[in-house]
Amino acid sequence: MPEARLDLLASVLPLAKALRRIEDEAAAGHDLTMWQYAVLQVVAAGPGRNQAEVAARLDYSRNRIVADLDALEERGLLVRRAGADRRANELVITDDGTATMGAVQAAIHRAEDALLAPLSSQDRKALHRLLPKLAASARSSRPPPKAD
Amino acid sequence: MPEARLDLLASVLPLAKALRRIEDEAAAGHDLTMWQYAVLQVVAAGPGRNQAEVAARLDYSRNRIVADLDALEERGLLVRRAGADRRANELVITDDGTATMGAVQAAIHRAEDALLAPLSSQDRKALHRLLPKLAASARSSRPPPKAD
DNA sequence: TATTGTTATACTCTATAACTATA
DNA sequence: TATAGTTATAGAGTATAACAATA
Fold first, then answer.
1. Is the C-beta atom of B89 closer than 7 angstroms to strand D?
2. Is B123 an 8 Å CB contact of chain A?
3. What is the pLDDT of residue B142?
4. How many C-beta neighbours within 10 Å does residue A67 have?
């Protein structure tokens, strides 16, 4: 008989938990939460986006991002800039923010490398190629976001 | 310069969410929660285990499993059997439980196949081989479980 | 009328503690 | 003294609703 097939979630959930812990600890090392670090990343990659856009890119909520932005702005890691549309805030990362974000990311990548250490170099390359592909498929299967 | 390296969580989190939704919906189709289905799976794979052992295998909690077992037992999908150690309950799945579990699992595998459809057959095989490996590494990096 | 940012509220999930009965 | 099961409580995380300002 065929070998029992494992639900993918049985593998992906422990993996997601481990990666979540890696990001939590790396961010906490710089007095950030995982979400605050994620916001810094998105703003660094595309300066000038407004709060709703950043939240949407993270599959986060435009409500909860407010407090995170308050904290980041107070620490001088990014700024809310007034733009043409005076309802929206253009988000821009500061030099301090870029430096902090880079330090957290470096710590994350080191921990990820340790997690992938048991795999062969080929397998690691395959994962770094396949996971983003799968994520794209997962995102396209996502239900339409609700009102908020 | 080297291509920007994506945090693994940026790929794994959307994937985990999609898989979680797949399991939630498949289980709900048989009036189960995802955790109730997971419990059925573990009990089916190893009959006679007690509640704490099953919870530990799922990285679940021995507290929350109680209500799930109440529901499963009331529906006749498994039974709590008395064993030698009269503190512990030996868990055994029933025929009905096996059938229900199999139906949910079949639905999950169909939905997983749809999610993996954009990938080549080779890539799919690579994933089914690599993800369990990675999960093992993730589990071994897990912090020691606390009191409860 | 719709959208952005914001705040407040409610709900779900999870973590922690404590009790009992057995060992 | 420690463990299995159970229950109750508190907390974190998330979802939903409503509002003012602007388009």
1. yes
2. yes
3. 82
4. 12
